[in-house]
Amino acid sequence: MKERRAAITALGTYVPERLLTNADLEKLVDTSDEWIRTRTGIRQRHVVEPGTPTSELAARAAGEALRRRGIGAEELDLVIVATVTPDMIFPATACLVQDKIGAKRAWGFDVSAACSAFPYALTMGAQFVESGAHRKVLVIGADVMSSIVDYQDRATCVLFGDGAGAVLLEPAADGNGILDFLHEVDGSGACYLNMPAGGSLHPATRETVEKRMHFVKQQGQHVFKYAVRKFADVSEHILHKNGFVGADVDLFVAHQANIRIIEAAQHRMGLPDEKVVKNIDEYGNTTAATIPLAMATALDQKRLKAGDLVLLAAVGAGFTVGSVLLRWSGVAWD
Ligand SMILES: CC(C)(COP(=O)(O)OP(=O)(O)OC[C@H]1O[C@@H](n2cnc3c(N)ncnc32)[C@H](O)[C@@H]1OP(=O)(O)O)[C@@H](O)C(=O)NCCC(=O)NCCS
Predict the structure, then answer these.
(1) Separation between Cα atoms, residue 133 and residue 149, nearest integer Å
(2) What amino acid positions are annotated as catalytic residues?
(3) What is the pLDDT of residues 174-217, one digit of tens each?
(4) Among the atoms of ligand 1, which is closest to the Cα of residue 115?
(5) Hey, how many other C-beta atoms are within 10 angstroms of the C-beta on 241?
(6) CA distances, 10 to each of 47, 67, 88, 137, 180 (Å)
(7) d(CA 327, CA 181)
(8) Ranges under pLDDT 50 in the chain
(9) How many angstroms separate the CA atoms of 263 and 35, rounded?
């Protein structure tokens, strides 16, 4: 057992008010509410007013977490932002958030791991607490997917939404906290889900813009098959590694990419509906924000209590695979 565990001691979330419903998308591309709901489980997504950056959503979620914990931003040691839609390629969005919230003593950095970025960032943050280097680490998952989604491509534009969630990590005071993590990457999957241009491989040119290369490109079938297999594999492995089986899990908080992916993993682990959080119908896939948003849904529904064994799992572009096993510590929730 670890000498010192990191625990989630506060949670804050933010989604923009503006809604993009399936009916709205029917006006933009050749799709239908029925197709979207049955193939993905999504009913609506929240999207920003154009021009609202990721740092804005991240700062609002951070503010909520700090308010609930009753501390000021100047107490933070470190700010980690998980995102695939940074305000700019550099500086890191963590720097912009640090400034916006007034975390004067904190350093920070971004984590790029697409839909697995929240478990990755949580793992990184936990190391600083477990080592004793830091006492207050803010981990934020935030994405403005509407800024990189092609609203002419029906295969991708129906999937994504915008949002942010922030958790505070501190030394566990009650024996609960983060137990373990298990992460993988498989870079041979990079070709199946990416944003081709805007980096050093294809810097922005008139051609990259005309070819719509600054948007998310996905071969959905490949990603779907990989995600179904990996969600269940990584979940089983991390449970087994820690001496647990599916029946021991109190709550499965999965990345919300497609209801069918979540349910495939749920069935392989033999979990009943009451042990699985599903809110994709309301938010779509908000990339780095889905897991904290799902934690908030569980708290709203009073499905999380101190001591619960919670399994987080995500699969994303890269390919990346992330899972974290924890005992919930209990947080103030209003
Ligand atoms: C994207 C996804 C929902 C597509 O569902 P699918 O069942 O795999 O569908 P396919 O891609 O095989 O497409 C089936 C048909 O529906 C069509 N289609 C795709 N998007 C559509 C839409 N929005 N509306 C209507 N039809 C659509 C396709 O053109 C295809 O038509 P065809 O058979 O005439 O060629 C699914 O593959 C998926 O969820 N993939 C993983 C997404 C993901 O997790 N991404 C983020 C990383 S975590």
Answers:
(1) 39
(2) 115, 255, 285
(3) 889 999 999 999 999 999 999 999 999 999 999 999 999 999 99
(4) 48
(5) 12
(6) 25, 9, 28, 11, 19
(7) 12
(8) none
(9) 18
- Report H helices in 162-219: 206-210
Q: Is 55 in the pocket of ligand 1 (CB under 6 A)?
A: no
Q: Give the N- to C-terminal CA distance of the chain in Å, as an integer.
A: 33
Torsion of CA 265, 184, 313, 279, to 10 degrees: -90
CA of 298 to the centre of ligand 1 (A): 28
**Paired tokens of 59:** 């700062």
**Quick check: bond before 319 cis, omega within 30?**
yes
The answer to whether the CB of 221 is under 6 A from ligand 1 is yes
Q: Is 318 left (phi over 0), alpha (psi -120 to 50) or beta?
A: left
Helices (H) and strands (E) in the chain — how many of each? 11, 13
Whether 219 and 196 have beta carbons less than 8 Å apart is answered as no
Q: Which of 163, 193, 166, 139 is nearest to 282 (CA)?
A: 163
**Peptide bond preceding 50: is omega within 30 degrees of 0, i.e. cis?**
no
Starting at the earlier edge strand, list the strands of the sheet with 6-14: 6-14, 162-171, 137-144, 78-82, 107-111
Answer yes or no: is the C-beta of 220 below 6 A from any ligand 1 atom.
yes
Nearest by Cα to 122 from 333, 319, 310: 310
What pLDDT, on a 0 to 100 scale, did the predictor assign at position 3? 78
- pLDDT for 1 equals 63
Record the tokens describing residue 7, joined without a space. 């625990």
Contact by Cβ (8 Å): 94, 110: yes
pTM of the model: 0.97
How high is the pLDDT of residue 243?
97
- The pLDDT value recorded for residue 97 is 98
Measured in Å, residue 258 CA sits from the centre of ligand 1 at: 10
Note the residue count of the chain: 334
